[in-house]
Amino acid sequence: MKLIPKITLIACLLLTLFPKSNKAWGFYAHQQINRLAVFCLPQEMFGFYKSHIDFISEHAVDPDKRRYLVEGEGVKHFIDIDYYEKALPFDTIPRLYHEAVIKFSKDTLHTYGIVPWNIQWMLKSLTQAFLEKNKANILKYSAEIGHYIGDAHVPLHATSNYNGQQTNQHGIHGFFESRLPELFSNQYDFFLGQATYIAKPNDAAWEAVEGSFSCLDSVFWFERYLHENYLDQAKYVMEWKGSTLQKMYSKEFSEAYHLKLQGMVERRMQAATICIASFWYTAWVNAGQPNLLDLSVSVPLDSSLFEKFPTILPTTIIGRPEY
Ligand SMILES: [Zn+2]
Predict the structure, then answer these.
(1) Which of 140, 150, 154, 77 minimizes the C-alpha distance to 283?
(2) pLDDT per position as a tens digit, 179-214
(3) How remote is the CA of residue 154 from the centroid of ligand 1, in Å?
(4) Is residue 12 part of a domain?
(5) Is residue 307 part of a domain?
(6) Among residues of the chain, what percentage have pLDDT more than 90?
(7) Is residue 313, in this structure, part of any structural domain at all?
(8) Cβ-contact 181, 26 below 8 angstroms
(9) Is residue 6 part of a domain?
(10) Mean pLDDT confidence for 224-239
(11) What is the mean pLDDT of the chain?
């Protein structure tokens, strides 16, 4: 028993030295979603994507790695839709970027998040890459649009209370998008059928955000309900993640929360996965359905795409504070 305070002290010290990093959907979930999306592609695309599935999966997290390093990157991952209107924000904010700029100003949009519009811009870049038959850019933009579509499907990327900081539920962001998928996504059904053509990509991106926003009441309410019925000792455990000791939600608490959410995490991951495949397919169709097997042997992969990121965050962090 005498050891407990010492262990707690060491744990606190380690937590200070190795703060929990912020990883939207969690690196694990982002990589898994991008990987699974490949299996939703039609035959004409499947061979190319399957042969590069490791790249598509590994680089699913590049946008998160650079969000604290590159000016303007952070706001591409979320939209604080409740900033515009608490009750019916989607009736307030125009879906088209130029109309939203006129109504709220560019500065405002680029402060409170631009994820639905960024998905449109990424779709353009991916379509252009297909038109140019630029293999390197096809892979880069496929991996990265997958990231932003994944983020748009996370409820906590659609609110200013993104980490429960306004409701004393600090940590709920990582709980929902990292801890739960890591514990339970191996039980999920990812036989999702085939990608479909998206005639209105802007609407599809906004529907992802609306779907996320509609989950928020449950996300917050059930965590609070369970919190009131759990002692801290039962709610949290200290666990090693690689070389880092972290305060984590216990498996028991996670299971109870997951059960209360009644499949929400699975449904959001499924929706993200089929949406990503459908955006890839749409870009390819809009570019005239180029033969991907030809370009996979004729164009060398640009090694500059394998971005290198520092493992230690800079002292000056750009964007939102860490979760
Ligand atoms: Zn992100």
Answers:
(1) 140
(2) 999 999 999 999 999 999 999 999 999 999 999 999
(3) 10
(4) no
(5) no
(6) 74
(7) no
(8) yes
(9) no
(10) 91
(11) 87
**67 Cα to the center of ligand 1, angstroms:** 8
Give distance in angstroms: CA of 6 to centre of ligand 1. 37
Q: How far is the CA of 23 from the centre of ligand 1 (A)?
A: 7
The CATH number of the domain where 148 resides is what? 1.10.575.10
State in Å: Cα 266 to ligand 1 middle: 18
- What's the rounded mean pLDDT across residues 288-315? 61
Kindly state the tokens that stand for 143. Answer: 């991996």
Q: Average pLDDT, stretch 271-289?
A: 98
**19 CA distance to ligand 1 middle (Å):** 18
From the CA of 4, how far away is ligand 1's center (Å)? 37
Q: What is the pLDDT of residue 15?
A: 35
Spatial CA neighbour of 87 closest among 219, 172, 222, 213: 213
Tens digits of residue pLDDT in 79-130: 999 999 887 889 999 999 999 999 999 999 999 999 999 999 999 999 999 9
User: Structure tokens of 298?
Assistant: 């004729």
- Locate tokens 């090694």: which residue? 303
According to the per-residue pLDDT averaged within each range, which of 4-18, 279-293, 305-319 is highest? 279-293
Ligand 1: distance of its center to the CA of 141 in Å?
A: 14
Kindly report the backbone phi and psi dihedral angles of residue 316, in degrees, each rounded to the nearest multiple of 5, phi listed first: -100, 110
Distance 294 CA to ligand 1 centre (A): 32
Which residue range(s) make up the domain with 136? 33-300
SS3 category, 35: helix
Going from the C-alpha of 209 to that of each of 123, 205, 232, 254, the distances in angstroms are 17, 7, 33, 24
How many alpha carbons fall within 13 Å on the CB side of residue 46? 8
How many domains are contained in the chain? 1
Q: What spacing in Å lies between the alpha carbon of 111 and ligand 1's midpoint?
A: 15
CA of 119 to the centre of ligand 1 (A): 12
Find the 15 Cα to ligand 1 centroid distance in Å. Answer: 23
pLDDT grade, residue 307 (50/70/90)?
low
